[in-house]
Amino acid sequence: MMSTRRKPRVEALTRLNRAQETLRQGASGAAVRIGPAARQTREIAADRLLIARGWSAPRLRRAGTYVEVDLGPRVGSMLSNAAERIEPPQHARRRRKAALTMLAAASAAGIAGTVLTRRGNAQVQPGESSKEGSSAEAGTGGQVRT
User: Quick one: where's region Disordered (predicted)?
Assistant: First the structure.
């Protein structure tokens, strides 16, 4: 069998602790050296950011107005036109069905009117219908006066 020599665990942990401590000291030294430069850079960046915001705000406002007033309606009408072109044509059956329904309703109304007119004429007595046409009135004794 082959033997491998391993370092004791304690020795490995002490080396790791020493390396970590060295790195901590180096990082704290770098932070001390870079701190003032970082503060100055932060202040300059804040000033430049305000300048950039002041420059971009009017341009964004102009662009927004253009989109609302000019571009928006054009895009809307373009989309509406595209929707009309894309929409499939209506079936002729639907139109025919509506026309036939209207024709049937009109026919039913005409038939109902005819039936009511005939019933009204049938209820009038035969003797009354001939008198309705004359303008002369019958007096007492059956004589007609004109």
Answer: 115-146
Assessment of whether the complete model's pTM goes beyond 0.70: no
In a domain, 100, yes or no: yes
Segments forming the whole domain that contains residue 30: 12-84+92-118
Phi then psi for residue 16, to 5 deg, are -65, -45
The alpha carbon of residue 5 and the mean position of all alpha carbons in its chain are separated, in whole angstroms, by: 74
Say which residue, 116 or 137, is predicted with more confidence: 116
Q: Residue 104 corresponds to which tokens in the numbers above?
A: 């049937």
Render pLDDT for 13-54 as a digit per residue (tens, 0 to 9). 888 899 999 999 999 888 888 989 999 999 999 999 999 999
How many residues does this entry show for the chain?
Answer: 146
136 falls within a domain: no
Least confident of 23-37, 50-64, 86-100: 86-100
Distances, alpha carbon 146 to alpha carbons 19, 33, 130, 135, in Å: 143, 137, 16, 8
